[in-house]
Structure formats: structure tokens, C-alpha cells
Amino acid sequence: MEIQIPSLLLCISFLFFTLILLKFGSRKKSNAKFPPGPLKLPLIGNIHNLVGDVPHRALHQLAQKFGPMMGLQLGELSVVVISSADAAKQIMKTHDINFASRPPIIAAEIISYGCTSITFSPHADYWRQLRKLCTLELLSNKRVQSFRSLREKVFADLSRWIASMEGSSINLTAELYNSTYALISRATLGDHTTEHEALLPILKEVIEISAGFDIAELFPSVKVLQGVSGLRRRIMVLHKEADKILEDVVRQHRGVKVEEHEDLLDVLLRVEEEGLELPLTTDNIKSVLVDMLGAGSETSATTMDWVMAEMLKNPRVLEKAQEEVRKVFDEEGFVDESRIPQLKYMKAVVKETLRMHPPLPLLLPRKCGETCEVNGYEIRAETKIIVNAWAVNRDPKCWEDAHSFKPERFMDNMVDYRGNHFEYIPFGAGRRMCPGMTFGLANVELPLAMFLYHFDWKLGGGMKPQEMDMADGTGVTSRRIKDLCVVPVIKRPLPIN
Length: 497
Ligand code: HEM
What we know:
Layout: H1 5-29, H2 55-66, E1 69-74, E2 77-82, H3 85-94, H4 106-111, H5 125-138, H6 141-146, H7 148-164, E3 170-171, H8 172-189, H9 199-209, H10 215-218, H11 223-229, H12 231-253, H13 264-274, H14 282-313, H15 315-329, H16 344-356, E4 366-367, E5 372-374, E6 377-379, E7 384-387, H17 389-392, H18 437-454, E8 455-459, E9 485-490
Parallel strand pairs: 2-7
Antiparallel strand pairs: 1-2, 3-9, 4-7, 5-6, 8-9
The protein binds protoporphyrin IX containing FE.
Protoporphyrin IX containing FE is lined by residues 118-119, 131, 139, 291-292, 295-296, 299-300, 303, 359-360, 363-364, 426-429, 432-436, 439-440, 444.
């Protein structure tokens, strides 16, 4: 067929015109600018801006200057940091669906069996199935209630041990972490074996090293850095150790018929047998177990540790909370869960602690699905989104005297945990919000009521409240750097049984 010169010219002109249109069109789209941020250095971008302080504080400092939607370049990663209630609402409500997946994180991918856990699986049908399972089975109110006697036993045992140490200085932080982990691991894996005790130090290390700011995480395409930083190698070793233990526990559980008091693994094996739309593999089950153990124990224990630290720093609050708890439980002479709803002030103390010290200060990162415009700024697809809940919860525009510990602010305040009030997001908000909130709060409120009822507390080593170091550390969760060493004094003796 003969090619006609005029039609060839026509085609070329059409192509040229289309290209110009496309270019013009895309330019028009990108009229919105990337959120402002500090000057980027070649190669490293803004990594140097985070040096010298823990990430949530360093990001808060920067946001004071560049605003509540701040753009950063961390190595190869384009990052937007959210630091106000309004901007958080845009991400976690208005555009929630577009920000409902997590960005790739090397550590998370390994430890969660290729991102098949609830926490790290992409926003798709598999994740939806797991979340449904959380709502209906794993973390429902009924399930949390079913662990009541276990919870009462674990924390009564801890209180008895504390009573046996009356007058001496004890490391309360260490005991809180051990007991909370014992509770979560028994609720998750049962108490047929003690093998899972070995999981605690593994999970602790994973949480410490997987905050997402390791050099290997910031330059994911430079594979050699993964070798240099040692992150991948270390996580692989930890994952292998954890997997061996979990594999054994799953094997032991299979085939054991449970009539009542199912642990979470029993539940997973039952629903697997009953048949799910998307069948679960053993690796999927193990990844959900990692979710429960990792997300459940560290967050609850960190909260408890901060509550006790803040009360010891504020003796007025401690006394007021003790007075309330003793008034409610003096009739019975011991603490049980049924009357905890009456402890309005103690609940306000927990709320205020979670405002000032959210255990996940940067929540868990999200990523932008499709390029979109938020508050007049363009966020490109794949951008990593960090919501600085620590900064949002202390925003002086929403909170009077925001850096002071004042539980009274919650006494007649309708702000709750449920992710509807974006100035207060310790459990996150939107689709990815924490599904373990009820369980987590139950694991904090019960031991707290016991500690307040039975004991008076003094700081160890004759330390005065104003001398306490309240610095927080790095890691996904923000633990206090210093362990809490305290001297208990029995005020209400513990019942024998
Ligand atoms: C005081 C206790 C707790 C706090 C403060 C807390 C906080 C959080 C936060 C901030 C997130 C991320 C939300 C987001 O990205 O918007 C989260 C996610 C999650 N939490 Fe919790 N949590 C607590 C207890 C628990 C417990 C006890 C469990 C289960 C045993 C649990 C399981 C999870 C899971 C599975 C996710 C991932 C959800 C998803 O990605 O879809 N959490 N939690």
C-alpha cells in the first residue's frame, strides 16, 4: 500500500499535537505544588533534618516552621508529614481509601510473611477478610470479655509479687512488659506450652529496629546498603527464630478440639476449617499471630508504663485516682472488671496519657494510592504518608496548655478514642484504625485499678517527682528511655485467692 505524504504529515502533526496536549494537560494537573519543606541536600534529601532527636519530635519541630502538611525527601523516599487535626482528617477520612495501604518496609515484609499480616497487607480483599475476622471473632467485645479471668489472674499474680516486694525498689517497667506479654501470648497461643516465652525478646528487637528510618529503608533500590546496615540479615535471623516457635505452636494446636475458652490460634484454625472465601495458609495464620503478639503487647505495656510514670510525676493526680478507685472497690475489698466503668477519673488519666504519649507516635505509615490533591497540595502516587499523632495530640490550637498532663480536661469532654475526633488519634482513624482498641484498653485499665487500689507508690532511690526523666526513645513504639523504679507500700491487702 502506498503511503500518502499528506496523510503521513497529518499523522505526525496529530501525534505532535496530542503530545503537546498531554504535556499541557499533565502540567495543568500538577499546578498544585508539593507540600513545603526544608531545603533538600543532594542524595540524602532531608535525612540530616532528622538527626539529633527522636523522629516524632524532630518532625514536630520542622512542622512548626513548614506547616501541618510538610514535604520531605528521605533518601529515595518522597514523604509527606501530617501534623494537624485538619490535615489528618483529610488523609484518614476524606481521602481515606486512597491512603489505605502501607508503603513497603523491608523489616515488615520479612516479619509479616511477605506482607500477609493484618497490619501490612495491602488494602484489598484479603485485608478486608482479616479485618472482618477481627471484628467478628478475634477482637470482638465478646472475645475480649472471654479473656477476663485470664487478665484478672495475670495481673493479680503481678500485684501479689509486687506486694511481696513491699518496701524495696522494683523495676516496674520490666514487670509490666513481662506480664502484658504473658497475657497477650496466652490469649493468642494458649498456655499448653511455654515455648512462646522465647518470642518476647525477638519481638522486642523487631519493634526496636523496624521504625522505617534505617538507611537501608531510605534507599530501597541500593541493595548493597541492606548488607552494610545489616538490617535485612538481622530481621531474617529474628524471623527464622520466631517462625520456628510459631510453626511448633500451630502444629501442636492442630487437631485439638476446643469446646470453650478458645485462644486466638484456636479461633484461626476453626475458621480456617469452616472455610473462608480466601483460604488461609499456615503462613497467613502465623502472620496474624505476629500481629496479635506484636501489636498487642508492646502498645498496652508502653501505655501502662507512661500512665504510672505520669502519675508519679504528678502526685496530685495519683492521689485523686487512688481515692476514686478505693471508694469504688472498698466494699468488695478487691478489684474486678465489673466496676471499672465507674472509674471516670482513672479513665481520664488513661486518655490523657494516650494524648501525650501515644505508643505509636507516628501511627503506622500509609502510602498514596493515586496522585491526588489535598488542601491545595499535590501528593503523588507512592508517596509515604506519616501522620504525626504525637504532634496532632499536642496541637495548641486544639488543646489548652497542650504539653501539661491534665486528666481533668477529659472529665466533661466528648472526645473519644474512636477516630471521629481528629485532634485525638492514639489509635489512628479510618479504615486502618486499630482493631484492638477494646482489648488494649482492658489490658491497661485492670492492672491500673489494681495498682491504685492496693498500693501507695514512691519513686526508687529517693528520687523526687520533678527529677524524673520523661524522655522517650526511638522505635515504632515510643517507650520511656528510663525504666520506672518504684517502691510499693501496701494500702489494701491482696485477697489470698
Ligand atoms: C493501648 C493499646 C493500643 C494502641 C494505642 C494501639 C494503636 C494502634 C495504632 C495507632 C495503629 C495504626 C492505626 C493507623 O494506621 O491509623 C494500630 C494498628 C493495629 N493494631 Fe493497635 N493499638 C493498641 C492495642 C492493640 C491490640 C491489643 C491489638 C491486638 C491484639 C492491636 C492490633 C492492631 C492491628 C492488627 C493493627 C493494624 C490494623 C490495620 O493495618 O488494618 N492493637 N494500633
